[in-house]
Amino acid sequence: MTTTKQPPIRTVNGAAVAALGSGLIGIVGNVYLVLFYLVAKPWQPGGVGGGYGTINDWLAALQLVLLIPVVVWLGRLTRIEKWPRRWTGIALAASIAAVVLQLLLLTGALPFAIQFGLTSVCIVLLYCWAGVISAAGRRRGVLSPTTARLGRLLMWATPVGAAAFAVGIGISALQGEGSWAWVVGGLPGALVWLAFPLWVLLVAHDAAWGAIR
């Protein structure tokens, strides 16, 4: 009598599901963000976005809500190290704050001029967390080399994007209404934001299937 060895049953990782959802929603939201800029042309007076901006705002809020379990999961697996442990707390606070700010914007309780700056700070903190946690995750064997490299790239590209946007804002202030210099200056930062959901999807892969060593 022979017995057939059954393959091990892989359980569904909640963090992997959350990361998958956050990454996919982030990509869809970015499509609407690009459509908003193409249709509304916000650098021109009287631009109308056709609802694309509002859809993107709702999707961004959901994207960040689903990111919270991912932050907790990565923090739990790297908590033995001091800096990842600290940045996990920062990332949790930044994620929650960004969601609240998005909802305040969508309900009309907070004007965009104020919400944008505060949310940008939260997003920058998440980029920095991605870099720190990627390095720690790789050292602990949690994240693959590809995931870790992209996470660190997001972090190191952040100051470049911030500097370019500051220059664009300065030029637009000198040129006056209708200037598109701030849009050009914001492109490096926009590319970082577009790449962030891809990093989250890589985290989802590593959470579900394990890091490739």
Characterise this structure.
The chain has a domain at 14-37 and 50-155 and 197-209. Helix content is 77%, strand content 0%. It has helices spanning 14-40, 52-77, 82-106, 112-139, 145-175, 181-185, 187-209. Helix 2 (52-77) runs antiparallel to helix 3 (82-106). The chain is globular and about 50 Å long. Mean pLDDT is 87; it is low at 1-11.
Index terms:
mainly alpha; 7 helices; 0% strand
Task: List the SSEs and their pairings.
Blueprint (H helix, E strand, L loop, with lengths): L13 H27 L11 H26 L4 H25 L5 H28 L5 H31 L5 H5 L1 H23 L4
Helix pairs in contact: 1-2, 1-7, 2-3, 3-4, 4-5, 5-7
Give the strand content: under 5%
The biggest beta sheet is recorded as: none
SS content category = mainly alpha
| N-to-C series of helices and strands | HHHHHHH
Number of strands: 0
Q: Termini separation (Å)?
A: 39 Å
User: Radius of gyration, Cα only, in angstroms?
Assistant: 19 Å
* Molecular shape: globular
| Total helical elements | 7
Low-confidence stretches are: 1-11
* pLDDT averaged over residues: 87
Instruction: Please give the share of residues in helix.
Output: over 70%
